[in-house]
Structures are given as structure tokens and as C-alpha cells.
Specification:
Layout: E1 2-6, E2 12-16, E3 28-37, H1 39-45, E4 56-57, E5 61-69, E6 81-84, E7 87-88, H2 94-97, H3 111-118, E8 124-125, E9 142-145, E10 153-154, H4 161-164, H5 170-179, E11 188-192, H6 196-207, E12 212-217, H7 220-228, E13 232-235, H8 241-248, E14 256-259, H9 271-281, H10 290-298, E15 304-307, H11 320-325, E16 329-332, H12 337-349, E17 361-364, H13 368-376, E18 385-388
Parallel strand pairs: 11-12, 11-14, 12-13, 14-15, 15-16, 17-18
Antiparallel strand pairs: 1-2, 1-4, 3-5, 3-9, 3-18, 5-6, 6-10, 7-8
Helix pairs in contact: 5-6, 5-12
């Protein structure tokens, strides 16, 4: 089969690789009908995530048709149409029973390696480094889905792939980011990053009743899409984020702040951004935490910081004294996808949400390597790329 494979920094190729096969009775094989390039994939593309090996199959946003099931999988049947969450969960461990699916205790095949890095292992993830199990990803014609009797979301209605594909990652990620804020009717919610996760966080914050949603970015197409979703926008290339947020909140700052950017903040006008780029260039820092610093500084005392943006390693000059003295609450984590999918699928079916609005480019799988460059460089109004094997 064909698959997009990582071969090093900024080196993604469409390779011919062996077809997946059933390896465990709980497995299923899915023929992919749609997959997508995620912002988190760019951290791999740019070489900032540890644990990648040449030839690893990328991708953790995908859906398709079940073509084979293991003998112990009595939930799925050949022909079922499914969205596969990016978090692989067993459904039986203590964390899964609590609904904390992204920290499943059983599915990370490289548990010892992850424990050395993080202190404790997290769940296995599709297409996302050997620290999270080294599982083949979904930017491919076929995928082996472990524990397939647990996580895949069956799609039994006439919704299109573009309407439901993002149930596997970015829609519940944006939703969880907003839910973690415990939004109240009097709240201003500030969101850094108007990429796909930021766009869904906007819609979630509006649906959850925020008084005001403010979004920070510098890409015109993303800012326009954010405005269409009901947000006030700040272009950080042309105005001070802190001054504008204070103006919008009577000098008090937003009660809730969401980091939908993560480890590759692209701000260039501040001294801390220049510092981060210099340290990253000589391998003394892995992540650029400009957004975290700015959120801590501008957030209203006793406010909440929600961080769906991915961080991979070490950051420097984090103002933890401000975080502590202002009494801020910090909530983070990979998304517990299956905690949210039933409710979000219902909202899509009822017309409250139509996630397909983020799709700006649809191309064949073979064009994936070039689209990584387009997505990375934010060219041609690119906000979300869907690949069709």
C-alpha cells in the first residue's frame, strides 16, 4: 500500500509499504477513505519531537471502512464506517474507567521509554513517535487499529467524511480545551492560535456561553474564519496582544485563556521569542513557550489556562512565580477523545456544528508531501488539509 512516511526533518515521502495485518484478536483493519494533516504532525515534520524513526508512517486523523476484524472484536463488522480516535485505549484499565483515555495504562508499547521521559507512560497514539508506542499512522491506504472493540466511532447516518472526520482529534481537542475552562456567562475567553484547533475552540466557547471570545493570530484567512465564528480578532503582527486584551476587558484581563499553538509559537516581535529561537537552534531548549508566558502575564488573577497545544520537552524562562501568585489554574493534556464523541456527533447530526468549514484543501494521498510544505508555510489560505487515499 501507499503511505506517507517520515524520513527526517522536512522529509516526508509517499512510500510503498507492506499492508497491515491482524496481529491481535482485538484488532481491525480499516481501509482509509479520508485522513488529514494535523498541526501536531508539523512538530514531527519540523524535527522537534523526539522518538521518530525513518520510515514511520504518519497521521492520526483518519476514518474509513472496516475490511477485517479480529476474532475477539465483537463490536465491529466488515463494512462498518468508522472514525478512529488518535488515542488508543484499552477500555479496561483504571484510567480508561475514569474516562482519562489519553493516559490509558496499557496501550503504549514502549512504556519503559515513555516513563524515562515523562515519569509515567501515556497512551499509545497513532503515527506519533515511539514515545507513544510507535504505531503506524493513518496517512495511508490501510491501518491496523489495535483495541478496535473500544474506541472507533461508528457512523451510521448520511454525514459526509468532512463532517465527521475531525471527531478523531481536532474537534474534541478544541471542545475539551473550552470545557477545561469551566466557562461562565460573564467570561472573556482568549484563544491563542486560529488554526483548526483554535477554530473549534472558538465554536465550543460560543456554544458553552462565553460573553466574549477573542482570538490571536497573524494569518488573514484564519482571522477571517475566526470572525465568522463569532470571535473578536487580534493580529499580533500589527498590535500589542496584551494592550488589546486589556482594552477589551476593562484592564482586568481575560478570565480564561487557551493555548492552541503549542511548542512552535511564531511570534517574532518580542525579546522572549528571539531568546527561544536562539536556544532552540543550539539544542538547549526544545519548545518555544511565548504563548504560555503571554497567557500567564495577561490572564486575570484566579483565572484558568487551558493548554491543548502540544509541548514535547523542555522550556525555559517560564514565569512560574506569576502563575502561583496570581492563583491561576493550569489544565493540560492530550484529548480524552471518547469522553466527548457521543455528544459531539449528536451536535453534528442536529446541525449545531458542521466541522467541514475548516477544510480548505483536499488532495490525493500522493500529494501529501507537497501539502505538508503548504500547510507548514500557511500558503494559499491553507487551514486544513484532507487527503484522499
Amino acid at each position: 500500500m501507499k503511505a506517507l512516511c517520515w524520513h527526517g526533518k522536512k522529509d516526508v515521502r509517499c512510500d510503498d509499504v507492506p499492508d497491515p495485518r491482524i496481529e491481535d484478536p482485538r484488532d481491525a483493519i480499516v481501509k482509509v477513505t479520508s485522513c488529514a494533516i494535523c498541526g501536531s504532525d508539523l512538530h514531527l515534520y519540523d524535527g522537534f519531537m523526539m522518538g521518530m524513526e525513518a520510515g514511520d508512517i504518519l497521521g492520526h486523523e483518519f476514518m474509513g471502512e472496516v475490511v477485517e476484524v479480529g476474532s475477539a472484536d465483537h463490536r465491529l463488522a466488515v463494512g462498518d464506517r468508522v472514525v478512529v480516535p488518535f488515542t488508543i485505549c484499552c477500555g479496561e484499565c483504571e484510567q480508561c474507567r475514569r474516562g482519562n483515555f489519553s493516559v490509558c495504562e496499557r496501550t503504549n508499547r514502549n512504556k519503559a521509554l515513555a516513563e524515562k521521559m515523562f515519569g509515567h507512560a501515556t497512551a499509545g497514539l497513532f503515527g506519533y513517535t515511539h514515545l507513544t508506542g510507535g504505531y503506524a499512522g493513518g496517512q495511508a491506504e490501510y491501518v491496523r487499529v489495535p483495541y478496535a472493540n473500544v474506541a472507533p466511532v461508528k457512523i451510521t447516518n448520511g454525514l459526509t467524511d468532512d463532517q465527521v472526520l475531525f471527531l478523531g482529534d481536532i474537534l474534541p481537542t478544541g471542545w475539551q480545551a473550552a470545557v477545561q475552562c469551566d466557562i461562565q456567562p460573564t467570561d472573556t475567553v482568549a484563544i491563542w492560535g486560529a488554526g483548526p484547533v483554535g477554530q473549534f475552540a472558538i465554536r465550543a466557547a460560543v456554544l458553552l456561553g462565553a460573553k466574549q471570545v477573542v482570538v490571536i493570530d497573524n494569518v488573514p484567512e484564519r482571522l477571517g474564519m475566526a470572525e465568522a465564528g463569532g470571535a473578536t480578532t487580534i493580529d499580533f503582527d500589527h498590535e500589542s496582544v496584551i494592550e488589546r486584551l486589556n482594552d477589551l476587558t476593562g484592564g482586568k484581563g481575560p478570565e480564561k485563556c487557551i493555548d492552541a499553538v503549542g511548542m512552535e509559537a511564531h511570534a517574532t516581535r518580542s525579546l522572549d521569542s528571539l531568546y527561544d529561537r536562539a536556544k532552540q537552534a543550539i539544542m538547549l531548549e526544545t519548545d518555544r513557550p511565548h504563548v504560555l508566558r503571554e497567557m500567564i502575564y495577561v490572564c486575570r488573577p484566579a483565572g484558568t489556562l487551558s493548554v491543548p497545544g502540544v509541548y514535547g520537552g523542555l522550556i525555559d524562562k517560564l514565569p512560574f512565580g506569576a502563575l502561583m501568585n496570581k492563583g491561576l489554574t493550569l489544565r493540560t493534556g492530550q484529548t480524552h477523545v471518547n469522553r466527548w464523541t457521543d455528544d459531539l456527533l449528536r451536535r453534528i447530526e442536529e446541525g449545531q456544528l458542521d466541522p467541514s468549514f475548516v477544510v480548505t484543501h483536499t488532495v490525493a494521498l500522493e500529494d501529501g508531501p507537497e501539502m505538508y510544505k503548504t500547510f507548514r508555510d500557511k500558503k494559499d489560505g491553507c487551514i486544513k488539509v484532507v487527503l484522499k487515499p
